[in-house]
Every structure is written in structure tokens, then in C-alpha cells.
Amino acid sequence: MVPATVLALRTMHDLDGTDARILLALLDDPRQSVVAMAQRLGLSRNTVQARMASLERRNAFLRYDHRISPAVLGYPLTAFISVHVQQQKLDSLATELAAIPEVLEAHGLSGRADLLVRVVSTGAEDLFRINGKILACDGVERTETSLAMSELVPFRVEPLLRRALPAVGGAGVGGTGVGGPGVRGTGA
What we know:
Elements: H1 4-7, H2 17-28, H3 34-41, H4 45-57, E1 77-85, H5 90-98, E2 103-108, E3 115-121, H6 124-135, E4 140-147, H7 158-168
Antiparallel strand pairs: 1-3, 1-4, 2-3
Helix pairs in contact: 2-7, 3-4
């Protein structure tokens, strides 16, 4: 069974300037201690710890496996598979797709295809095998596979956090505005 959190939309409510500053500080140095972050942001340790706990409860943090490169694990090839499905079998299909280790994520779509599935493989023959596994899932009508030739814009949230700072009236990391000390980028 696929956990409900996989199928649910993530929503974040009531992000304030302090939350945004903490998240930006984490982007800049994810290994820093709570004490070091508190000193850097000019906040108390208890405030940072409480805010981190609150952000965690609100599902602000993605799983840590998003930071591990599949290429290091022997899967250098990334592909996106558009899947056309029988709608009434979508729930069971999500469970079947989750059982295929090379499926990194799957998204329901509007438009021509019903699902966009991101997969990794060891090479072309392995990709053919993975596509066959997806085609064998109950409810799949057909697939279209596109190889990722390069990653032009990697996953990022920093520009969104920087945009959120003025909207919530917060200061940047270090309390000096959006581009405080030690923060990468110039903002958007």
C-alpha cells in the first residue's frame, strides 16, 4: 500500500520570515548544529529547535534520499515515462509502480498522458526492462519514454524562499536582509 502522504498534495501554511530564514540557513549548510544556526540567525537555540520541530510536523522537509545521486548507485541513465492508464485502476497502479525499485517518483497529470514516471536505469537494455515492468502493470494501456539528456535546472526551492522573505516581512539569514552573510545567490 502506498502511504497517503505519497498521494496527497503537500501544503505549507503560515510560513513566516523566521521559518524562511531557518530554511535558507539549512539550504546553505544542512549539517550545521541548531546552536550554530541560532547564533548565525541571531535567534535563541530554543526558538530554532521549536521552529524546526514545527516545520517537520508540517512536512516542510523532503526525505533525505532526495539528496543521493542514483548515478553513484550504478544508475546513470534517467528517463521520464509518460503512462496512459485506465482511470479506475489508478490506485492499484500507484502501488504496483511503487514496487518497482527504479521508479523514483510518479505524478498524476492533466493533459495527454495520465502519469509521468521518473525512472533510473543502468543503461538502455535495463530501461527497456523497466518499461516492460510498467507496461505489465494492470491498467497501463501504453507508455512513451523520453531520455533525460541533461539536467538544466536542478531541483531547487531557494528562489521561492527568497521571494517569501519580503512577503512575510522577515530579514535574511544573519538578520541583514535577503542576502545575509553566508547565503548563496542574490535572490529573485
